[in-house]
Amino acid sequence: MEFMDTKTCQNLARSFAGESQARTRYALYAATARTEGWEYLARIFEQTAANELAHAEQFLEKLQQHGKQPIENIDVAAGYPFTHGVTMENLYEAAHSEEQEFLDVYPAFAAAAREEGFPDVAALWEQIAKIEGLHRDVFREAYSQMQTGTLYKKGKPIVWRCANCGHIVLAEEAWKVCPVCKKPQGWVIGDLPERKLPES
């Protein structure tokens, strides 16, 4: 069977398109967060967008590697989210999309690739699925903290850092305005989850 006729080829094309679309969506979410005064959350969206670009590059590389000839065009039939609201809604939607890739989409693509004899592609999907799980956890925690009002207020002292000037304070609650550079609270970095392996 020609590579272009495999599920793996179609799924790589879908993954490339999906990661490219996610990168753009997260860039838009970052702009919205920044407009709303959530600089810290904007930076999280931007970092995730950069990760999605790296994933898209890896999927394109596998397409080219296994295609063995220039691939001019692949028709992709797939559904992609087109949501864009306020930051809290965007965090919720981002967590949901990342969870689908982590738990359903990429594991299914990996299984199909293994079945068709592409273990290297299967391994790539498995690795990227774990990263998408990390993204889900960060978005989910940010959403939860916004919903409960604990993004900048904790029940115990933690280290707060200004993303602009680096001012650091150990306290239960972040400042409203940085005493050093006068940036508003949206520039404060608190304790969203560390980048650790996600749980299913």
In brief:
This protein has 2 domains: 3-148, Up-down Bundle (Ferritin), CATH 1.20.1260; 153-189, Single Sheet (Rubrerythrin, domain 2), CATH 2.20.28.10. It has 4 helices and 3 strands; from the N terminus they run ααααβββ. The protein has helices at 7-35, 39-67, 87-115, 119-148, and strands at 153-162, 168-173, 188-189.
Describe this structure in words.
The protein has helices spanning 7-35, 39-67, 87-115, 119-148, and strands at residues 153-162, 168-173, 188-189. The chain has 200 residues and is mainly alpha-helical. Helix 1 packs antiparallel against helix 2, helix 1 (7-35) runs antiparallel to helix 3 (87-115) and helix 3 runs antiparallel to helix 4. It is elongated and about 65 Å long. The protein is built from four helices and three strands. Helix content is 58%, strand content 9%. It has a three-stranded antiparallel β-sheet, with no helix packed on it. It has two domains: 3-148, Ferritin, core subunit, four-helix bundle (Ferritin, Up-down Bundle), CATH 1.20.1260.10; 153-189, Rubrerythrin, domain 2 (Single Sheet).
